[in-house]
Write a structure and sequence with these properties.
Elements: H1 3-7, H2 12-21, H3 26-38, E1 51-57, E2 63-68, H4 71-81, E3 85-92, H5 95-104, E4 109-111, E5 114-115, H6 119-131
Antiparallel strand pairs: 1-2, 1-3, 2-5, 4-5
């Protein structure tokens, strides 16, 4: 039986458990990993990726740097309390990306995840999301 037909539709965690519990050679593990990568779009997992986002409160001018699996839904939740909040942009990322940005702008923190950023700061965050390069603070 061809490996694609065996792996197609399987939960990645089950496949990894199989690999871990069976004595497979290094070559077999690489072959399975490559097959998983190539057909990864067919996996039916409940897991969604995190996105780091930037929102702006148009009344206060403050910016929120946060993380969510669904930034648009998060925006709607925040808008129910404060309709002036809008999602500016987001990027698929992990918690460490959020932490890097929180640390970089810690001196501009107002409260929690809200920051008093300049337009230049927001441009730097957008550039970081686009290019992976973050400017050092002066």
């Amino acid at each position: 039986m061809e490996m694609n037909s065996v792996l197609k539709g399987c939960d990645p965690e089950i496949i990894l458990f199989f690999i871990a519990t069976h004595h497979t050679s290094s070559e077999e593990m690489h072959e399975i990993a490559n097959k998983m990568w190539n057909i990864g779009s067919t996996f039916k997992t409940k897991e969604r990726h995190n996105h780091v986002y930037v929102m702006k409160d148009n009344i206060t001018g403050y910016y929120k740097i946060g993380i969510s699996k669904n930034p648009s839904s998060r925006e709607k939740t925040l808008q129910s309390q404060c309709p002036s909040i809008e999602l500016l942009f987001s990027k698929k990322a992990n918690k460490s990306t959020e932490a890097i940005l929180h640390k970089k702008y810690s001196s501009k923190r107002v409260r929690g995840e809200w920051f008093n950023l300049s337009l230049s700061d927001v441009d730097d965050v957008a550039r970081y999301f686009r290019d992976g390069i973050i400017q050092e603070l002066p």
